[in-house]
Amino acid sequence: MHLRHAIAADIPAILDLERQSPSAAHWSRQQYENLFVNTGGQQCSQSFAWVIEMEGGAQREIHNETPKIAAFLVARRVDPEWELENIVVSGAARRRGMGTLLLHEFVENVGARGDKAIFLEVRESNQGARSLYRKLGFEEAGLRKNYYSDPHEDAIVCRLRVA
Q: I want to staple 138 with a disulfide (CB 3.0 to 4.6 A). Which of 5, 51, 88, 160 is the partner?
């Protein structure tokens, strides 16, 4: 597996992976495209988008195939904090440390920038994600009633202070 910055060419694979995860935030193609500047597919400075690509990336590039993305994380800066907007690990890749790897990379980058905190919302029923966030030091800090739809559900607000 290979952890790297997401690029605009990853959008089809990200969308495919996201659609397979009922608990993910479901974005439009345009929302993902907005993460990238039109010239060269460079990442915007106020966004953080990383993917974990399965081995064989160089072979796919030679044959012009879509990369096999096993996991991704998207966040954006909301001065002076960051909001984790979406994190998805494919069903086949779960329980292999990919979510933890993405979150560690994200936290390290936020800390290196001198920013102070990360917050996120998670479905109240998503015990696996809530457990992972607690393990990494996030604290449950609030509740947003009926935050999610399809199905309707409350969101737990979590926060991590980065020092």
A: 160
> Nearest-CA neighbor of 9 among 59, 60, 76?
60
In sequence order, the 6+-apart residues with CB closer than 8 A to the CB of 154 are: 123, 124, 143, 144, 145, 146, 147, 148
Q: What is the pLDDT of residues 34-68, one digit of tens each?
A: 888 654 544 445 888 999 998 755 444 545 565 68
Is 124 noted as a catalytic residue in this protein? no
Active-site pick, 133, 139, 147, 153:
133
With 0-12 / 13-18 / 19 or more C-beta atoms within 10 angstroms meaning exposed / middle / buried, residue 75 is buried
* Among 83, 121, 139, 147, the one annotated catalytic: 121
Q: Give catalytic status of residue 85 as yes or no.
A: no
Of 6-20, 26-40, 56-70, 100-114, where does mean pLDDT reach its minimum? 56-70
What SS3 state is found at 141? strand
Hey, where are the domains in the chain?
2-114
The CATH fold assigned to 2-114 is Aminopeptidase (3.40.630)
Residue 82 per-residue DSSP state: E
Inter-residue contact 69 to 52 (CB < 8 Å)? yes
Tell me the CA distances in angstroms from 142 to 59, 76, 139, 157, 158, one per residue in order.
46, 20, 9, 5, 7
